[in-house]
Amino acid sequence: MTSFLQQAFNGLVSGSFYALLALGLAVIFGMLRVVNFAHGALYMLGAFGAVALADTTGLGFWWALLLVPLALALTGTLLERLLIRRLTALDPLYNFLLTFGIALVCQDLLRMKYGAHSQPYERGPFTGSMDLGLFDFPRYQVFVLAVSVTLCLAVWLLLTHTRIGTIVRAATERPELTRAFGIDTGRWVTPVFGFGVGLAALAGVLAAPMRAVNTGMGSDLIITVFAVVVIGGLGSVFGSVLAGFTIGMLQALGNLYVPVLSQTSVYLLMAVVLLVRPAGLFGKEEPA
């Protein structure tokens, strides 16, 4: 029982990164109908931003947690304004190829600077273990889970209990109908894209003290995150977050009980979900 609970908690921590990345992807897709393949590279840039900030200025984790997501969110708004917006009227494949190219450029530029080896980063602000009753668990992992749950809850409250959130949610789920009511959804596209990028960068900073910081860390994660978004439902914020934590637990428990299927379980689940609900668990089918 103790091993089960410990692995389940491990899964929730891994699911924290899936949830944050999937949340950003879901909001961006809902507003722009853009499959942002650069999301994994932005997660990587968040981790490398924390490393670069420590190397160049000596600023530690807390400063990185504040400054790096803000800097990359601003970069994301410029990216949307200068490049992505110009292609939104075309076939979605064009923006997919654009973001895929951006991801490759980011990886190669960092590989030129840092090489292919993992970069060291300081331990998180919380060291040691915390007594959770039946088992001890590293304090930093508990902190990561708490931050992720708090952020997801805060975004949910923002989307459901504020006027801005109502507009963004309506534009995410029913953009054509929202525009028909005279609401200018275009003014929200740039800040929402920047917000999604900031979430990816924040996840990267949180990952830096506990994951290997290398140029492949984003590409290793993004395929699973896309599967999470598909399972939850494209454009569904709640579904993406719930699927993120669920997939994290499924993989962790798979490592304990069925190691041979632990890495493929997410894709098996995606296949089953799409057979039953082609739009995902909480997605809505769009009319042809």
Summarize the structure in words.
This protein is mainly α and 288 residues long. Helices cover 73% and strands 2% of the residues. It is built from eleven helices and two strands. The chain has helices spanning 2-32, 39-57, 61-87, 92-114, 139-161, 163-173, 175-180, 186-207, 217-232, 237-257, 265-276; strands at residues 129-131, 136-138. A two-stranded antiparallel ribbon has the order 1-2. It is globular. The mean pLDDT is 86.
Strand and helix layout:
Elements: H1 2-32, H2 39-57, H3 61-87, H4 92-114, E1 129-131, E2 136-138, H5 139-161, H6 163-173, H7 175-180, H8 186-207, H9 217-232, H10 237-257, H11 265-276
Antiparallel strand pairs: 1-2
Helix pairs in contact: 1-5, 1-6, 1-8, 1-9, 1-10, 2-3, 2-4, 2-8, 2-9, 3-8, 5-6, 9-10, 9-11
Q: End-to-end span in angstroms?
A: 49 Å
The average pLDDT value, as a whole number, equals: 86
Would you state the CATH class? Answer: Mainly Alpha
Beta-sheet strand percentage? under 5%
How are the strands of the biggest sheet laid out side by side? 1-2
How can the largest sheet be summarized? 2 strands, antiparallel
In total, the number of strands is 2
GO molecular function, one term: transmembrane transporter activity
Subcellular location: Cell membrane
Pfam families: BPD_transp_2
Family: Belongs to the binding-protein-dependent transport system permease family. LivHM subfamily.
